[in-house]
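Example 477.
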Amino acid sequence: METKWYEEGLRMIEELTTHAERIQDELLREILSRNAGTDSGTSGGQLKMTPVTAEVAQKGELFRTLYESPVMKHFGDINQAGKRMEFMFARPEIETPSGLTAASVTTSIYKESWFRAMLPKCYTSPVETIFCPETEQSLYCQLLFGLIQRDEVVLVGSVFASALLRAVKFLENHWRELCSDIKAGQISHRITDSGCRSAASLIMKPNPQQADLIENICNSKSWEGIIRKLWPKANHVRCICTGVMRQYTAELEFYSGGLPLVSALYASSEAHCGINLNPLCKPADVSYTFLPNMAYFEFLPPGYRYELLVTTSAGLYRYKVGDVLMVTGFHNNAPQFQFVERQNVAISVDQEKTSESDLFKAVTEAKALLDPLGFVLTEYTSYADTSSAPGHYVLFWELKQKEGNNCKELDPKIMVECCYRLEGSLHYTYKIYMKKNIIAPLEIRVVKQGTFDALMDHYVSKGASLSQYKRPSCIKS
Ligand code: AMP
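Predicted structure in complex with adenosine monophosphate:
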C-alpha cells in the first residue's frame, strides 16, 4: 500500500522525539561552529526584525509537514478531501537600509513558491485577496470565495483565533450584500481592488439557489453553529486558541457548533517550536511537543514554569522569546509544554503584579454573571490608571448579545457585581492592597461595539500583521 505523506511525517516525529537530546546537541554544535567568528549584537528597538535564511525557510516547510501530520491522522488527508477556508492577510514588504526585504513571517510564507503552487487546489482564497492591502476588502472577498465554494470546504481557520472571529463578525454584518453578489454573479462595487475584482470575474457566475440557501442560514435568529451550517463538510476549525487567544474559545465554540477546535502548533517569528500531537484535545488542555531539530531550546528558570530561550540557525543566540511555558510531560524524550502567558505582560499600579493569566482567570469568573442574561464578553483589555492616587485598574469590555446583533443596556447593578467578582478573583496581594487603600476600586468601562476591531485596524495601520495580530492584554495610553 502507498504510504501517505503524513505517515512519513508521523514516523519522523517519533524519530526526532526519541533522539531529542542528541539532535539538540548536534544542532547547537553546528550553530556554534558555524558562527564562531561572529560578534553577536542585541535587539533593543521597537520593531523586531529576525533574519530569515534559505535554511530557515526550509525548516518552516518541514515544520508544516510535521504539525499537519497528527491532524491528518485524525481527519484524513485534507489536501485530497477538499479545500481550506483560511483567512490570510499579507502585509506590504519593506526594504531595510542595506537593501534586504523585510516581511512578516506569514507574508513570507504566502510568497513561497510551494505555497503559491498549492493555493488554487487546496485553499478557497485566491492570492489577490490575501495580498489586498485593504483589510475590509480582503475579508469581504475571502468570505465571498469561501461561500461560493462552500461545498468543498473541509477546514475553516486562521493562524490565530482573533482573525477568524473578526471574519465571522464581519459576515454577520455583510451577509446580505455577499448573498446578493452570489445571486447576481457579480462582485459588489465596494470592492475597488483590481486584483480582487479580476479574481472574482474568473470564478463568479449567477447562483440564486446557493444565495438563497446561505441567506436562509444567515437569517436565523441565533448564529449558534453557523460555521457548521454554512460549511457542512468542514470537519474541524483550525486556529491557535491557547495563550492570549483563550478568551475567544467560548465564542468560537458557539459559532462552530461542536466542530473540534484544533490548535496545531506553537511557533514564533524567531523559531518554530512545537506541535500538538493530540489535535482533538480541548483547547484548555493543549500541550505542545518540542521538535529538537528546529532550534536549540533552553528553559529558564528551573521549576515547572519556564521562560523560553532559543538559539537558531539564523543567528539568534540565547534569545528570550518572551513566553512562559509550563511543563506537562514528555513524548518519547522530547518535553511537552502548555503555553502559560507572555512574560512581563502584567498590569500593575503599585508593587503588585497581575499577569495575563491572573487577569484572564478573574475576567472568566466575572463574565459568568453575564451568561444567564444572554450577554457575551467578546473582547477585553486593561489599563493601569494612575492619574489619581491611589491608582486603579480599568478594564475595557466589549459586549454582545447572544442573539441578535444589537446590544441592550445592561443594568449598572450587574456591572457593579462584575467589578466585585473581578476583584474577588484577583490574587492575594491585590486584595491586601485594596484593603489598605493602596489600590482604588476597579472600574469596568463598556465600550461601543466594534471598538476592538478598530483597535486591531489601528495596529495594522501601524504595520502589524492581521494574520499574526494579538490584542494587547494591557494598553499603555
Ligand atoms: P509572532 O511574534 O507574531 O511570530 O508571534 C509569536 C508569539 O505568538 C509567540 O511568542 C507566542 O507568544 C504567541 N503564540 C504562538 N503560538 C502560540 C500558541 N500555540 N499558543 C499561544 N501563544 C502562541
